[in-house]
Every structure is written in structure tokens, then in C-alpha cells.
Amino acid sequence: MPIVVRIDVQLAKRKMSVGEFAERVGLTPANVAVLKNGRAKAVRFSTLEAMCRVLDCQPGDLLEWVEEETS
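and the corresponding C-alpha cells:
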């Protein structure tokens, strides 16, 4: 998928655990894992806003577009 979620980078910068992040954002740790592993098909703006608020970052710090490789 050409959109990559970079939650793990922001969590590492803040030395925050997935459990703490999930609790503060209002997600289950399983849903955070779905986001981190690139298996999510969509993210609600309210969820993105909460993630940015908790991590004190911009949406572009969490989401990155990468060109798909063509074979």
C-alpha cells in the first residue's frame, strides 16, 4: 500500500509504549497494531487528530506516501 503509517517512529521518539498510546488515544492495542502494521484501510480524522494530540505531531509525521514498486 502506498500510504505508510509511522506511529512506531513517533512512539520511539517519545519513549511511549503502545499500551499507553492506545489508552490515551482511545484505541485498543490491537487496533494500534493494525495501524502500525499497515493493515488499516482507513483512519477517521477524529482518530488522526487524537493521535497527533497525544504525540504532539502533525499528520504528516504519522502518514507517508511512498510510490508503489511496479514489476
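(Above: one complete record from the training split.) The longest helix spans residues 45-55.
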